[in-house]
Write a structure and sequence with these properties.
two-stranded antiparallel ribbon; alpha+beta
Length: 196
């Protein structure tokens, strides 16, 4: 554990550190006096040491920002606005999440397979927008199509439904392994049919 550096007497913005305060559970906290001079100045605050050192905490929050706005008033207005326009903000956030998910998916496809989302859509269109293995028109599982690729070479093979992709993974992912495993399963089923 690193030794705690005593910040007593040091200045951070308009804050002066007085002494060590009660630990806030994550890092040492310090009692500070504020000299922002605002009417709503709290004068004494407890601040985390790392926030003081990084410049995240430089006043009690009563000081006006660079643009002449009162941060404490802005927080109150923001809270009131969010309460008043809850449904509107939910709708906006839903649209943002869909957009973010699309961007994240495009980024993942580019990173993993080296193709753009346009190229991926073209491959899927060539497959008649269905699973390349079983021709299912719905992806199943969590509702996302799986981009199948060879794990040895990294070459993209096609777009599969959840069931085919999982089955291929369980069977071993390569043609010799799938053939060998399929033979074992066929032999097992024939044996069961004879004994039944």
């Amino acid at each position: 554990m690193r030794p705690i550096i005593d910040l007593s007497g040091r200045f951070f913005g308009v804050l002066t550190v007085i002494d060590r305060g009660a630990n806030d559970g994550r890092s040492p906290a310090w009692n500070c006096s504020c000299a922002c001079g605002r009417p709503d100045c709290r004068q004494r605050i407890l601040a985390r040491g790392e926030n003081l050192k990084t410049g995240n905490t430089t006043s009690c929050g009563g000081q006006r920002s660079k643009h002449g706005r009162d941060p404490s008033k802005n927080r109150r207005n923001n809270s009131a606005y969010r309460t008043k326009h809850k449904d509107k903000l939910k709708r906006v956030e839903k649209i943002r999440n869909v957009h973010r998910a699309g961007k994240r998916r495009a980024w993942n496809i580019k990173r993993k397979f080296g193709i753009t989302i346009k190229q991926w859509n073209a491959i899927f269109a060539n497959q008649n927008k269905c699973c390349a293995a079983c021709s299912a028109t719905a992806p199943g599982g969590r509702g996302a199509w799986m981009t199948d690729h060879c794990h040895e070479t990294g070459v993209l093979r096609g777009i599969l439904c959840q069931r085919c992709n999982t089955t291929l993974g369980w069977l071993g992912d390569t043609l010799p392994k799938v053939k060998a495993y399929t033979k074992l399963l066929v032999k097992y089923l024939k044996r069961q049919a004879r004994s039944g």
